[in-house]
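Thread: "does anyone have the structure for this chain?"

Original post by V.I.:
We have the sequence but no experimental structure in hand. Need at least a predicted one for the grant figures.
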Amino acid sequence: MKPGGVAAALRLLLAGAAFPLAACATSGTTFDGVVLRPVFGEEARVLEWMESARKSGSERRSMRALADLKLESPSGGGSVREVIVAERPARLRLETLNLLGQTQAVLVTDGERFSFFEGGDIEEGPVAEGLLWDRLGIDLEPEQAVRVLLADPHLASAPPRAVYAWDQQRVAEFPGQRVRFSPTGDVLSVEALDESGAVRWAAEYGRWRDVDGGRYPFIMFLRFPRSRVSAEIELDEVDLNPALEPALFTLRSSNPR
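Reply from O.Q.:
Generated one for you, tokens below.
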């Protein structure tokens, strides 16, 4: 990835800002350098929060947003304007704009085929495993990426192994996952863990607001440790559950827009 490059912007779109849940561990658990206090008897409340989050998340079927994307990576960083469009189950459009609001790079997929443009010829083909990783360095399949962008990452259904307090927030550990909640039950962050307990990807959600169609976070921090990159996605505006034209998720060879 080249500092400030268009491809870097796309590679970083879902690779989020480093945030401190990665420091959590069952023994000697810490959060942002603070030792977390184990709490007991709150498992039922956490399960209610998880069920509520799954229900509200499932109601977010599609989104279209304009965002400021602040990028950091080992090779550099910068800020770009990004158009983000997502629709279940696996329709996705990630479009980087230049200062004039023109398309510099775009990746689209309708779940079956993809197109990728970054100033030259349009690359096209069938969707295969590793599409986003191979093209953008994103360790998610399109369906998973859509769920993350809809603030509906897959949440565990099993009871929590442990619950910790950090001030008024709660951090719950599940098999393969850690979830942080606000005092009112909003999901603030999710970490997906591999079999060794290492973080595969992490998402943090903030500035939850009521909008037409439900609640949605206006700021996201997302990261993939394998990419060693980070991004802050701050939304100017979001259209939740819009009816989206299929043409948004394909590219004409003569015109990426």
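V.I.: this helps a lot. Residues 43-58 form the longest helix (16 residues).
O.Q.: and The radius of gyration is 18 Å.
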